[in-house]
Amino acid sequence: MKITGKVYLVGAGPGDPGLLTLRGLECIQRADVLVYDNLVNPLLLRYARPDAELIFAGKSAKKHTLKQDETNALLIAKAREGKIVTRLKGGDPFVFGRGGEEAQELGEAGIHFEIVPGISSAIAAPAYAGIPVTHRAVATAFMVVTGHEDPTKGESQVDWKSVAQFSGTRVILMGVERIGEIISQLINYGMTPDTPVAMVHRGTTPQQKTITGTLATMIEVARAAEFKPPAITIIGEVVRLRESLQWFEQRPLFGKRIVVTRSREQASELTRRLLELGADVLEIPTIAIKPPKDSAPLREAVQSIGTYDWLVFTSPNGVDAFFCEFFAHHDDIRDLGGLKIAVIGAATAQKLAALHLQVDLQPTEFTGEALLETFRKEVSCENLKFLLPRADLADEKLARCLEELGGIVDDLDAYRTVPDPDDRTGHRARLLVEGADIITFTSSSTVKNFCELLDVPELLKKCPGLRIVSIGPQTTAAAKAGGLSVAAEAKEHTIPGLVETLLRLGAG
User: Fold this and answer.
1) Stated pTM of the model
2) How many Å is the maximal CA-CA distance in the chain?
3) I need a labelling partner for 62 at 20 to 30 A (CA). Which of 105, 167, 349, 497 fits?
4) What distance in Å separates the CA atoms of residue 103 and residue 100, rounded to the nearest whole number?
5) Is 3.40.1010.10 the CATH number for 6-119?
């Protein structure tokens, strides 16, 4: 029996990655092959498996990476190879998304498929612009029509007379380039020129731009604003509610393009916080976390863990790497014995709390110097044995100073940070083309690798207003050593502290 795969036609939503459905997320995570359009937020690609094949099949009004028949053939061919294919489409697959055509082709080819609905821009973009498509006091119905029909049909199938005479809200998708013709039709069929109109560009994203006017003024308003597709148009009295209901564009970091350079595994928390504040986030991981080149020293230390008095963690990555090795040789957390634990940073402590381990020593400031000062004041280190599982390029000062205090220190490589050249989301390319407002660095290694991966002098020349924000003193020192001027450093050396700094900088 010949094994065939399956195709999921998934609505990726209108642009905000938070509007992807749970079922859609499952389909992305399961996919062997991910085929996506240009209106799909690239941040969704980070949920794909590392070994998944990513294929861009983007379309715009005048440019096609793959023609529709080529996309259909691609889906069928990949499924016939026995693969799980997730076809990501902006908005909802069946709302002017040609998902019906793709499903027909799959059915005729005998390919199993599933439709996963998505949130359409027809309702999401107005909502993010502060315009409810229905309101009991204003409009009790709404209609959705396309402003961009199949050019091979010869004549329009949209009954513009019925649209004009409709008593509710009209939502027109993809009609920016024909807005003059559409307005002319509506006025000719009886709509009053003072009917309110709004147009929303890239709704639900940090690039969202909303303009308002009336049927009589909208053409000139759009021309003056140099308004471009993709966008939707909302026509009706509900548009007047925007003045009191707009919320998305009021977020404190709205429209600020901020670069996140953390590793792919760690970026999500900072990205999530920035997206909630309205920022346009470019995830450009500059480091990848890898096992040490030689794991034997750490393995030997773990096997003889009972000989140590103190276990010192300076980062969450160190916790992850140590316990990955630990549980490869021990079945019980109690095999740690009676050793004590010291940490730098709240995030590091949280990693240990998840393992139900108490921290015995944690300075209020998240620096190696503060930890050393705490040891000096509270612990007699003479002849105590310390294990420091850290990054291969970690500063040796902490280990050296503990030895000066009389301790016996094993400063071991628990993991490596290496440059991450992969640009799965296309955000690195976008940075080089569009620039950014702020670049965040969360470790000295992110700075070092960023400078190795990109032409920083050229980037600074292109973006003279670009500002650098650092999470702490070591990161700041690395940035200055790399020729970067740091605009701000987080007072609290944590992700929340970094976000607070960004808010202050954004307000300034």
Assistant:
1) 0.83
2) 92
3) 105
4) 5
5) yes
> Which one of 16, 32, 37, 437 is the catalytic residue?
37
Residues of the chain above pLDDT 70, percent:
96
CA angle (262 as vertex; 258, 263 as ends), nearest 5: 140
Partners of 481 in the β-ladder: none
Name the nearest CA neighbour of 319 among 285, 350, 294, 295. 350
Closest CA to 239 of 179, 175, 182, 194: 194
37 a catalytic residue: yes
Contact yes or no for 233/201 (Cβ under 8 A): no
The letter for the amino acid at 354 is A
Q: Is 410 among the residues known to form the active site?
A: no
Domains 257-286+421-507 and 291-419 in one fold: yes
Query: What are the C-alpha distances in Å from 343 to residues 258, 353, 375, 386?
Result: 29, 12, 11, 12
What's the gap between Cα 272 and its chain centre?
Answer: 7
Check 59, 209, 385, 462 and give the catalytic one.
59
28 compared with 483, residue with greater pLDDT:
28
462 has catalytic annotation: no
Task: Give the span between the Cα atoms of 308 and 341, in whole angstroms.
Answer: 11
CA distances from 441 to 290, 407, 484 (A): 19, 32, 11
- Distance, in Å, from the CA atom of 495 to the CA atom of 169, rounded to the nearest integer, reads 43
Q: Tell me which fold the domain 291-419 belongs to.
A: Rossmann fold (3.40.50)
With 0-12 / 13-18 / 19 or more C-beta atoms within 10 angstroms meaning exposed / middle / buried, residue 21 is middle
